């Protein structure tokens, strides 16, 4: 059985009404394509931070430019459910914890009647921890289109993140991003920018590493000082890009056969079965990278 899925490249700002209008338009377009699972970007409700690094948005220097913080059970998420109806939608937002103060860069997977799962971003780049607290768990969950896992942006640079979801049975990993171009020596052709290259390479590698379908959504255009690389895509368990938006805004739409593809891909190569965790160095037994890391290094991968 095949399922049509799509990943979005689009620009979201602080204007919530603009966000909802755009979400509704994208859902409507996806519906005409027969899409059952739609991946919207990180921070699609309220936009991402307007800058990063030493001059990034923080709770200490401003509250005016921070995304609005909403609760998972709040009216903002319910409005997305009303738009989604029978479509399964994954979307990023700034989550306000029950204490009314703690904020997370978060994502949720839902349709009109059900919240299937949610996630709080674990890996934080370039001072993002000044605006958000970090999550601490990766868990996959069941949906009508298969078992799904969520990631946000910089998570894709860490093989352990996707592997954790794959080991929890994820068949589809949705990676939502607000991934910009390089902050220094930016390429004239943004498709050739080194951060665009890394974004695309991580997507293909993580899909192939774990033999999963990979939906990568991303912001497009610009917001504040950040220019985004777009390149939303659908990748199969062999690392093959089935559809991509490149730098453009829009939908990357592909038809996938989870059961049939897994039977073929995982019937020939056994990346998960053949793991050797008994010889992998982790925790206290692993060499520390702190001594060689340069905290002032400019050329870091964001998202």
TrEMBL record:
Record's keyword terms, sorted: Hydrolase
All residue ranges annotated as the CN hydrolase domain in the record: 3-258
Transmembrane segments: none
Cited Pfam families: CN_hydrolase (PF00795)
Coiled coil: none
GO MF annotation terms: hydrolase activity
Keyword Hydrolase carried by entry: yes
Name of the protein: Carbon-nitrogen hydrolase family protein
Organism: Frondihabitans peucedani
């Amino acid at each position: 059985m095949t399922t049509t899925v799509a990943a979005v490249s689009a620009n979201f700002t602080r204007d919530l009404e603009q966000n909802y209008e755009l979400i509704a338009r994208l859902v409507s377009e996806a519906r005409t394509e027969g899409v059952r699972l739609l991946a919207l970007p990180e921070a699609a409700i309220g936009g991402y931070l307007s800058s990063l690094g030493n001059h990034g948005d923080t709770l200490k220097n401003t509250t005016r430019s921070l995304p609005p913080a909403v609760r998972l059970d709040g009216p903002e998420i319910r409005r997305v459910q009303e738009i989604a109806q029978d479509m399964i939608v994954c979307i990023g937002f700034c989550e306000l914890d029950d204490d009314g103060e703690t904020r997370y860069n978060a994502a949720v997977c839902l349709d009109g009647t059900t919240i299937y799962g949610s996630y709080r971003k674990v890996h934080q780049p370039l001072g993002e921890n000044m605006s958000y607290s970090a999550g601490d768990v990766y868990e996959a969950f069941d949906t009508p289109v298969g078992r799904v896992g969520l990631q946000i942006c910089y998570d894709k640079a860490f093989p352990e993140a996707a592997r954790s979801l794959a080991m929890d049975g994820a068949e589809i990993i949705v990676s939502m991003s607000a991934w910009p171009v390089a902050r220094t020596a930016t390429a004239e052709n943004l498709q050739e920018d080194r951060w665009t290259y890394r974004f695309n390479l991580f997507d293909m590698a993580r899909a192939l590493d774990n033999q999963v379908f990979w939906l990568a959504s991303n912001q497009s255009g610009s917001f504040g000082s950040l220019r985004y690389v777009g390149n939303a895509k659908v990748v199969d368990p062999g690392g093959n890009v089935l559809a991509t938006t490149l730098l453009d805004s829009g939908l990357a739409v592909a038809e996938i056969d989870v059961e049939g593809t897994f039977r073929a891909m995982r019937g020939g190569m056994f990346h998960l079965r053949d793991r050797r965790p008994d010889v992998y160095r982790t925790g206290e037994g692993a060499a520390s990278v702190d001594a060689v890391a340069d905290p002032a290094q400019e050329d870091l991968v964001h998202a």
